Amino acid sequence: METRRVLVVGIDGVRLDLLPQLDTPHLDSIAHAGFLASVEVDDATPTMSGPCWTTIVTGVGVAKHGVWGNRFGGNRLDVFPDFTTRLAAEHGLRTFAVGGWAPLFLAQQGGPVFTAPSRLSYIAPREETPQAWEECDEAVAAEAARILGSGEDLHAGFVYLGAVDETAHFLGCGQEYRRSIETADQRLGMLLKALRDRPGHVTEQWTIIAVTDHGHRDEGGHGGRSDQERTAWVAACGPGLSADRAPSAVGHADIAAHVYAALGIAHDPHWTLDGTAFTA
Fold first, then answer.
1. Which residues contact 222 (CB under 8 A, 6 or more apart)?
2. Is position 277 within any domain?
3. pLDDT of residue 267
4. C-alpha–C-alpha distance, residues 138 and 268, integer Å
5. Is the pTM for the entire model greater than 0.85?
């Protein structure tokens, strides 16, 4: 009997308009098997990592989850938890979250966003520089690949890669930024290989979702309302997803909604999700 599984890979700060110019075979393979769609950060949401990632993993907007910036104090994540926490607490499923941005994973700056997945791995960058973040992301990808390849009965996971965003902040959206995107794609490939190599892969149906939170200005930076900053994207493949069935519009809140649908979990009206599954 085939079992449903979901992996969400968040790659921070990747501009959609640059992807066609870059060597990203693993992201391209997801898009080819499913779809790649632009996401517009809605008018109520600041184009910042905190609110965007919180919307992505909770399925509700800023008015509900209460994260308005990169300090998370005053949030309502006890009412609107991330999908790894909800799946573990309410459905008894095995979930994990891995990454290196502290407030997503630790009780810092009002966090964490991932409050109680079955397994949580935080890997700190040694300093706030592009190179240190590349090293951090490499360790994150290796840890996530180890978890995925362990044969553990996992149902859903989230992996966060932050080096692309940090590179843009320090160096702008030039050649270093573009190389960082291509390197992030290589790390995505590590995760996809780990899935294929799982001992029980032939009996598993995986939905893969890769997503970014916001874009960047040419000189680096975000938080404003320019098209470059507010344009994000999502690529997804898996059961029921294909290029000829791509959704006409996708929002950040749809990510968590699709995670639940992909696992065969019916929408609970008490969750008051703002998103809907891609295939809804």
1. 13, 47, 48, 214, 215, 216, 229
2. no
3. 85
4. 37
5. yes
